[in-house]
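Dear support,

Our group has been running a series of protein-ligand predictions, and this particular one with fructose -6-phosphate is the one our PI (initials K.S.) wants archived with full inputs and outputs. We had some confusion internally about which version of the output was final, so please treat the block below as the authoritative record. The input we submitted was:
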Amino acid sequence: MCGIVGYLGFQDPKKIIVDGLKKLEYRGYDSAGIAVMNDGKIKTVRAEGKIKFLEDKLGQEHFNGHLGIGHTRWATHGAPSERNAHPHRVGDISLVHNGIIENYLEIKKGLLARGAIIKSDTDSELVAHLVNEEILRTNNLFEAVQKTLSKLVGAFSIVVIWEKSPDELVAFKDGPPLIVGLGEKENFIVSDVQAALQYTKNFVYLEDREIVHIKNKEVRYFSADGKPIEKKVNHLDWTTELTEKMGFKHYMLKEIYEQPRAVAAAIGPHLNPETHEVEIKNLGFKKTSKEVFSGIDQILFVACGTSYYAAMVGKYLIEQNARIPVEVDIASEFRYRKPIIKKNTLVITISQSGETADTLAAIRLAKEHGAITLSITNVQKSSIDREADGHLYMSSGVEVGVASTKAFTSTLALLNVLALEIAKARSVLSKEDEIEGVKNLLAVPSQLEAVLSFDKYFSEAAQKLKDFKGFLYLGRGVNYPIALEGALKLKELAYLHAEGYAAGEMKHGPLALIDSRMAIVVVAPTDDLIEKTVSNLQEAKARGGKIISIGTGENEALKSMSEYYLSLPSASWMTNPLIATVPLQLMAYHLADNLGLDVDQPRNLAKSVTVE
Ligand code: F6R
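Confirmed final output from the archive:
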């Protein structure tokens, strides 16, 4: 949450910083601002709301310096307003901050007692005061920042500039990501490589409690106690086209349509299309994956939001194939409930961004308990990826839309692969089942294409949904988490109240909600549970509920009881969740778009949740 860009180089800092912030807007869009050197002074421009309002304010404004910082905010302390927007200025110091300062009350008390005048409601401004106090003593930006770091408790990444030193920038982090981009005669500090990718492919990832000091063209790294350290430069061969809309109305729509390709990219490296064998190569464990997977007694998934629902699907897939107990935990609960992690537990974290604060804390906790850890992320070298013993990549390409789509289906595909691989390592997968499993998976990209070609029907179904007062999304078995995901998509995009339920739970409470203004969206493929699901739906229909069903082929029984019936191609029980997700994503998308809502950046949300 919050995006940071710092720049020191020969180009126009205003352009570089504003362009970079646009790439980071997914991290927060409550306010934005820049502070850039101009005629030996720092000039600050800030605006409430999205970056376009900052751009309007900046207009033809020109800056002749080469140093600047910028910020796009997801509000934590203090309402979204210009007063609370970053950069914050105190004395000659300007600063941007991502994260939370937990000891802010204590810091504030001390500052007020020392006569400080605090202008905003943010914890960030307090840090600027602390740096300012130090710089008045030391007259040295690096020392002032280093001394300040030791006074802060919480999760933060911070970049500081000083009016008296127009060629210098100091940054540090303890929690949210901060990455140094190394260019030719110019350097960048960003929350995500995307913000500097068009200028450089060489990046240095700061670890917690590390400081970077950029002065003129020199970049040096230090530990929190001020000792110089060496850092590895990572060369990324990503392209910037990945972050364009490519003619689609929204990033989210583009990303939904990219799913066939994204899923193919996720499974491709692990499946042999000739022999139909599964083999995950280079997981990165010290032992072979066979040794790891055959030596564990249980698996524990930890994740948040959509990634948590993917993990729930993983439980069904792995338990049924590999016959090993699997638990699934919400990361924010897991980290605080003193979990019992038995010996020989494999902890698998799922995180698109690889930066979710709770998931990161969970993997660290799991390691402290001696668990073997495996991360499934989309962003290589992200904090969670770097923390894990073993690594699997969604390979979905950059996901810009705040609501996760292609990363979810790519993860489901990877979990299919993982279930087969673990079962094989534990010698409980027959050759026939392996071949069938691989064939089914290889068929998914073209099945997804087929489902996408029905978009017009999903758009029509969305029209039907718009007048209902509430929504119940139902599913059973491996499709139950898909119902949860469908409800989440509707909530976050269309701001409508939706709940996901296991269809069999209806008569234990939710049935009381049913009347003619309640829509029931059901994922009901023709599988072992279809008859039970149809019975559950009869009970809802008898009470006036209106049913929108997603079934397999021409399921007459389901069709006859539905207001709207959406037909999907036949798929295996393991891969059906992938294709059933697409209509739910598209219905939520169209409904929100018809309501004129901001589909790519829903209110109050941010893509990378780096605070707990
Ligand atoms: C919903 C959504 C969120 C994320 C959650 C975890 O569409 O995107 O629920 O899934 O914030 O994020 P990651 O996967 O980056 O850890």
